[in-house]
Amino acid sequence: MGEGKLPIAPNLRLLKVLAWMSGALTSFVFAAVSIRELSQSLNVFEINVCRTGGGLFALIAAMCVVKSLRCGLSLNDMPQHLWRNAVHATGGFFWTLSIFTLPLATVFSLEFTAPAWAAIMSMAVLGERVSVNAIVGLVASFIGTLIVLRPSPDSFDIFALLPLAAGLCLGLSALLTRRLTRTFGVFAILFWMMIIQLIINCVGALMIVDAARLSESLTPPNVLAAIVLALAGLSSQLCLSNALKIGEASLVMPLDFLRVPLIAGVGALNYEEPFDHWVMIGAAVVASGVLIGLPRPSAQHIQLRGRKVENSRRHAARSRLPKATDNSKEISVAGTGRLNK
Predict the structure, then answer these.
(1) CA atoms in the 13 A half-sphere facing the CB of 137
(2) Which domain holds residue 100?
(3) Is residue 172 part of a domain?
(4) Which one, 19, 183, 237, 337, has the greatest CB density within 10 A?
């Protein structure tokens, strides 16, 4: 009977990954739609102020409820987060601006180049060794990017470089985040991200502020869109992080690719954007390149993980066994005495 329950764990893990990725995909779509709606009234900096300010408010509210989240937060740690958030804020600026000017499917497709940029910079900056799979993945991502852009003197759109620049910044941000995770937890990284990027976006917004336009923009639909953007921006990061924590990247990445056809359908229905099959093909090639370039676990790593799983199952089985009480011991001793007599 015990052996029949063993396969439940992988199925439960898969269900959890699907649940977290469903939340991530929904959040990405709501964030993009909110930005598109707000773009009619606010500029890029003002929209990012709504995103980071609302996200910071949500994190502070979480700290008031779960007081243990305050542990590990120190003002002395802020300088260590500056470079990462300066790069990430730049990528967020390019990504938001690209939603202003390009079809949503094109933006999401070219955003998938971020892992490829990260791999290139890890070679050039960190001097990391690159496997054959990583090189093949980079080439596939480059080909997919060309399919999406289809550069020619007649059809090339200069604004298509915006999501590529966003992907470059996000790829570099991923490398810097990797260093931060050695010292800080996810909540601390998110907390300082919201504070630093809120300051950066406030400075940019104040440089081109228009009080009359802002007062006219405070309409109920815009306020609702700003709230949705703040919550969606924060929940997308949390959902994707938890999905990667539970499941392998080789499972999460194909699911993450589903946001491209999903946002293409939203763009076609809500904004009458043309459904470009070449964008879908290019996005699939880019996503395939990312999947090919993912690091494969070694045989020793797989064997070690199997031992950990087996040990945890044995420990759980032992914990379910009834513990012998003093009374049961006395009964067993008395019974043994009778048999000996």
Answers:
(1) 24
(2) 23-303
(3) yes
(4) 237
Would you say 106 and 261 are in contact if contact means Cβ atoms under 8 Å apart?
no
Identify which of 249, 197, 245, 185 has the alpha carbon closest to the alpha carbon of residue 86: 197
| Residue pair 257/112 in contact by the 8 Å Cβ criterion | yes
Record the tokens describing residue 175, joined without a space: 């490398």
The residue type of 121 is M
The residue with tokens 């396969």 is: 7
CB 6: neighbour CB atoms within 10 A? 10
pTM of the model: 0.76
Residues 6+ apart with CB under 8 A from 173: 84, 87, 88, 91
* Contact by Cβ (8 Å): 35, 222: no
CB atoms within 10 A of CB 238: 16
How far apart CA 8 and CA 214 sit, in angstroms, is: 54
Helix (H) or strand (E) run with residue 287 in it = helix 277-292
Any domain includes 337 = no
Residue 326 lies in a domain: no
Please give the tally of structural domains in the chain.
1
Q: Per the structure block, which two tokens stand in for 91?
A: 């990528």
- Name the CA radius of gyration of the chain, rounded: 25
State the residue for tokens 């400075």: 203
Per-residue pLDDT of the chain (341 residues; tens, 9 = 90+): 444 444 445 678 888 888 998 999 999 999 999 999 999 999 999 999 999 999 999 999 999 999 888 887 888 888 889 999 999 999 999 999 999 999 999 999 888 888 778 777 777 666 667 778 888 888 888 898 888 887 766 667 788 899 999 989 988 888 888 788 888 888 888 899 999 999 999 999 999 878 778 888 889 999 999 999 999 988 988 888 788 778 776 677 777 888 888 898 999 899 888 888 888 898 889 888 888 877 765 544 545 555 555 665 666 566 655 555 445 444 444 444 444 44
